[in-house]
Structure formats: structure tokens, C-alpha cells
Design goal:
Length: 171
């Protein structure tokens, strides 16, 4: 909603002075000029918003998250992304929740947030097995309370999420 309103206002800010100066000087502008400038303005604004999404999202969380991994993508519908891929989603550690060593194990429990453009953030509980260098994750709202979550979680090797092993096992 706000993005559309800002885009429309931006078109008026760019095209308005050109139109006003042409009217003041009584110069006939080519019929294609204002729509072309409006299109270039909207196109540029769209590119700016897609490339600045990651920075705006991280800034909105302040110091609550620690970004661990950015995932950059390219698209055939945006050919310039093959030159400079843009961040489409990222993984961050929730710094509000302190890592917790599960008693009598080498497993550290922590909180993770996966954030993707045009999707709700996904809160995950992460388990880092420091002895075996494995990582397991469960959506936070699906962590079982009646049984041991370590029996339910599916473990993956360190190569999938090396940054999580490094973060949780170095503490």
C-alpha cells in the first residue's frame, strides 16, 4: 500500500516540474515524453526497492538479529540481476534468546529466523550438536513439549549450515 503511494508521489515529483516548466515556457512536449519518464521512474523505483529490501529488513530488527547467511538470486524477468544478484532471503540468529546448553548432552539450543521477501518470517528452534557437528531445526511453534525434541528433530550435516555450528559451538 505505502509502496504504491510512494511510487505515485515519486512520479508526480519527477514529471510535475517538467510539465510545469514546459507549460510556463509554452513549449510543446512530445506526447511520449511524460509517460516515458513516468515509466523510467517507476522502473527505477522498483529496482531500488528490490535491492534495498535486505538492508531495510535488517535495519527494522535493530540489534535483535545477527545475520548469518544471505541468499542471492537472479531472475530471467530481471536480467540485470545476473550482473548483480539481489538478496531474496536470509538466515539470522535471534539474539534475544540466549543459546542454551541442554544438560548431559553436547547439544546447544538456540533461536533462528528465516526471512524471505513477500513471506512471513519463520521462527525456528535450532539444535547444534557440537560433538557430531550436526544441526537440527524445528519450527518454534512445533517444538514438542511432551517428548524430547532431540528425538524428533531431523539432523543434517555441518556442510548444510556451517555458520550455525561455528556460532553455537564456539561459545
Amino acid at each position: 500500500m505505502w509502496t504504491i503511494l510512494i511510487a505515485v508521489c515519486l512520479v508526480f515529483v519527477v514529471c510535475g516540474p517538467i510539465w510545469a516548466i514546459a507549460r510556463y515556457l509554452r513549449v510543446q512536449l512530445p506526447k511520449f515524453l511524460l509517460p516515458m519518464i513516468a515509466g523510467i521512474t517507476l522502473f527505477s523505483f522498483n529496482i531500488y526497492m528490490s535491492y534495498s529490501w535486505f538492508d531495510r529488513m535488517v535495519a527494522s530488527y535493530d540489534d535483535d538479529i545477527i545475520v548469518q547467511q544471505e541468499y542471492r538470486t537472479s531472475s530471467i524477468f530481471a536480467p540485470w540481476t545476473f550482473l548483480v544478484p539481489r538478496v531474496s532471503h536470509f538466515v539470522a540468529i535471534n539474539a534475544k534468546k540466549e543459546p542454551y546448553q541442554i544438560p548431559e548432552t553436547d547439544v546447544v539450543e538456540g533461536a533462528l529466523v528465516m526471512i524471505q521477501e513477500y513471506a512471513d518470517p519463520m521462527n525456528l528452534t535450532v539444535y547444534a550438536d557440537c560433538a557430531n557437528e550436526q544441526v537440527g531445526m524445528l519450527p518454534t511453534n512445533q517444538v514438542p513439549t511432551d517428548k524430547n525434541p532431540l528425538d524428533v528433530v531431523q539432523w543434517t550435516a555441518k556442510k548444510e549450515f556451517p555458520y550455525l555450528i561455528e556460532y553455537y559451538c564456539s561459545k
